[in-house]
Amino acid sequence: MSRLTGLSNARNVTFVAVSLVAAVFTALSFARAQNESALRDLSSAVESASERGPFDPTESVAKSLIVDRVPKPPADPRAAKAYAVFDTYCARCHQTGRLKGPSPAHPIANILALDDIARQPSLVQPRLPDGSALYTIMLRRHATLDLDREPQADAVQAVRDWIQDLPPDVGRCAQQQPITQTVVNKAIAADLATMPADKAKDIRYVSLTHLHNACTPQLVMAHYRQAVTKIINSLSWAPEPVRPETIDGADTILKLDLAEIGWVSAHWEKLVAASPYAGLASASLSDTERRRTGTTMPVVRADWLAHAAMTAPLYPALLGLPGRHVNLQRILNIDVEANIKSGAARRAGQQSSAVTRGNRLVERHPTRTGSLWMTYDFATSDARQNLAANPLGPSAGGMVKVPFKHDGTKSLYTLPNGFFAYSLNDMRGDRIDQSPDTIERDETLWGGPVGNGGPCMACHRVGPVGVIDSVRAQVEADTAAPKELRDAILGLYAEQSEMTNLISEDQERYATSQRRVGIDPDALVNGLEPVAALASEYTRPVGFDRLAAELGTPLADVQAKLAGLPVELQLSIRRLKLAVASRTEADRILVRLGMDAGTGGRTTVVLDAPEQRSELELLIWMSAEAYAVGDLATIFARASQNCYLTLVSIDEANRATVLFPNEFEQNNLLQAGKEFRLPGEAAPYQFRLKVRGRETVAGMCSTVAKSVDGIAHDFERQRFTMLGDWRAFLGQVSTEGTRPLLSAADAPRAPQQKRGRAKQAPPAATPEPKLDGMKPDAGKANGDVQARAAIAYDVR
CB–CB of 369/416 below 8 Å? Predict the structure, then answer.
């Protein structure tokens, strides 16, 4: 029996066209190109672009920085060992050029570029491995590791040693002359002064100054300028691509002409309304520039633009993306169903896809300016979702008695300027802004759910990607199917050579359009497509140095200003100082500091409640950043969820002592959101610092296990559990997991007097509260979640 099912011998039926709602046309941005007044400067812009000529290779970034291949191992021996560990256990998911899947796993796409990794405080804290997320992942065998080959103790130690040896200023920006907002405003004012009033109304700006302030290499900056050009052209229905020019000596401020890209002021105001910095810009911008441009905010940050304008809701709004796929077809002057019936559409079917959970169908349609590529995505490969058995559809009619049943479509289509745009639609053809989790395998390298715009571009940086068809060969081998049916399928599913040529032609057309406006189409920035890399500059967590760079203010000045901010921001400020804060928190701080530095504080900033963490987060800090010998020290901690806390002190000789829990304070349940201090106010002991040097306090908090890392206490023998050499102790943990590795009975007895502890009997034991729904000491088998943090301080 033939494997082809759900088909009929009926002849083709008449195609019924779907009418387009006329209002759609008025909503589309390309309508401005039909307005004569909007074209007043377009001819000169095209002429200017022609004079600039083809892509300038001097704008291309060296491959050592813009990674288009796997980075070479470093020369330093310890760094080379860490490189080998990441290459063995992490590269298959986090290194472009080594991937086992279609895209790197967020947020790391270039794990072997150790210099760049070391400068990301969300991953690495130089000289503080216990506070570095990258080391914690290795130590705890995080689920993102390649679990086919768990790292051995020597591999984990290699990562620890590399972090421990990093210079303390490895991520410190040495920018001597940051570009301030005042400088930016002066450059904009000077540029606007050179043009007539009617021209100035169409002029807007995109700024990279904060990335310059953060010491971003100039070669990387060049590709970020190209990324801005790519964004603008990907949101434009203008007939020719445009290349924004810079207006300042540092090449950090790019000028846009709304008329050139087919925008009206309403497009820009959508950006202004969505910007977290709109109020700040109003406070610092002069009335003259606001009046000349007709907007309160003529400049936006490039990284925020990449993040916001290339995702919903701004992406479909700025592009004028219609709400129905049939309307998109009308705009492109094609009829998808008619092309399928006539054979003008070309198909390739995949039995298994690295992107979707079921099989997948890829379909190409020619358009006036290039092509429309569609995928029919399936959540399964069963029944009517099996392409091998149901290769025809999506509509019934003709030979298709029961067509395949897809769950959604994705579209990639050529804009008039040669760039690509994207649309996601459900099975009915209605536009959606996010692909359902039931269809997608994983998040994209964009760093979030699959959606319109940037997430599509991140995977399709060259345009349509290669596809290997499996349907045609099966149909050719299925001699039981009727000839008429086989001919219909074979007439639609292209031979592999034809499909490969079509993909190559569309890729080259896209590359040519990019080169015309100075974009290197082959570039990657730290393993990512440049627009995705620029967007990640905004979304990644923010450290203290980065905050100062974004403000354009010296570190010392920022430090002084932070102390005066409202109490609602102090938790976010603590996160920022200890390691990193989220972008949302950093933006709250930025706007408040920038407002205070503005003209009289005219902007009102509404401060939200402190950001809540859905995941377990542990913060620990000291009563001071440095101490003198003989000082008393106090340790503080805070967790986002109820968890059992362990605090370990590691001295400069790497000797480790558990400070908490101890004989005097044995109940180590840390209540969510409450500030904990050690020693407690009623504790019969103190921590007096007697030895000069650098010390570390490492904290571990577990939602289930009262004791972590194999630590076992025997308070009858030791009031403060001694662990010996910390590095060696953790080496045992990484080898043997959470089994107790060292008990107090095996360790030397602690001295009866420790750091000024008062001599008195320990308090009577009190009952320990239990975490709701969890059993203490149940371990990972009972859903244990752990968080780690560390802080270093100097004793002088």
Answer: yes
Q: What does each C-alpha distance from 693 to 98, 128, 232, 347, 679 come to in angstroms?
A: 42, 15, 54, 69, 22
Kindly report the backbone phi and psi dihedral angles of residue 265, in degrees, each rounded to the nearest multiple of 5, phi listed first.
Answer: -60, -25
Residue reference for tokens 């007096």: 688
3-state class percentages of the chain: helix first, strand second, coil last, to nearest 5: 35, 15, 50
Buried b (16+ CB within 10 A) or exposed e, 156-179: bbbbbbbbbbbeeeebebebeebb
Distance CA 407, CA 264 (A): 36
Chain segment 369-419, per-residue pLDDT in tens: 999 999 999 988 899 999 988 999 998 777 777 899 999 999 999 999 999
Mean pLDDT, range 658-664, rounded to an integer: 97
Q: Does residue 107 or residue 57 have the better pLDDT?
A: 107
Q: State the pairing for strand pair 655-660/431-432.
A: unpaired
pLDDT above 70 covers what percent of the chain?
79
pLDDT per residue over 334-374, tens digit each?
A: 999 999 999 999 999 988 777 778 889 999 999 999 999 99
Predicted pLDDT of residue 22? 28
Q: What are 742's strand-pairing partners?
A: 711
End-to-end CA distance of the chain: 86
The residues with which 300 forms a beta bridge, in sequence order, are: 206
Instruction: Give residue 133's pLDDT band: very low, low, confident or very high (50, 70, 90).
Output: very high
Q: How far apart are CA 719 and CA 727, in angstroms?
A: 22
How does the average pLDDT of the chain come out, rounded?
81
Verify cis geometry, omega within 30 degrees of 0, for the bond prior to 57.
no
Q: Mean pLDDT over residues 437-450, rounded? A: 59
Q: What span, in angstroms and rounded, lies between the C-alpha atoms of 455 and 465?
A: 15
- DSSP letters along 628-646, please? -TT-EE-EEEEESS-EEEE
Quick count: other Cβ atoms within 10 Å of Cβ 747? 16
Interior angle at CA 131, CA 130 and CA 136, nearest 5: 65
What angle (nearest 5°) sits at the alpha carbon of residue 408, between those of residues 402 and 413?
115
CA distance 507 to 419: 10
- The pLDDT of residue 479: 83
For 206-237, the pLDDT digits (tens) are 999 999 999 999 999 999 999 999 999 999 99
**Which 3-state string (H, E, C) describes 728-788?**
HHHHHHHHHCCCCCECHHHCCCCCCCCCCCCCCCCCCCCCCCCCCCCCCCCCHHHCCCEEE
What is the SS3 string spanning 338-364? HHHHHCCCEEEEECCCCCECCCEEEEE
Cβ atoms of 399 and 7 closer than 8 Å: yes
Does residue 571 have a pLDDT over 80? Answer: yes
Helix and strand numbers, DSSP H then E, in the chain: 28, 22
Cis peptide before 751 (omega within 30 of 0): no
Residue of 223, 287, 293, 291 whose CA lies nearest to 258:
293
For residue 448, the model assigns a pLDDT of: 53
Strand-pair category, 299-301 with 245-246:
unpaired
Residue 618's pLDDT band, with cuts at 50, 70 and 90, is very high
Whether this model's pTM surpasses 0.85 = no
CA distances from 567 to 251, 587, 589 (A): 39, 16, 12
Q: Quick check: 435 and 447 in contact, CB under 8 A?
A: no
Nearest to 143 by CA among 184, 90, 104: 90
Distance CA 51, CA 253 (A): 22
Q: Are 511 and 503 in contact (CB under 8 A)?
A: no
- Answer yes or no: are the C-beta atoms of 532 and 457 closer than 8 Å: yes
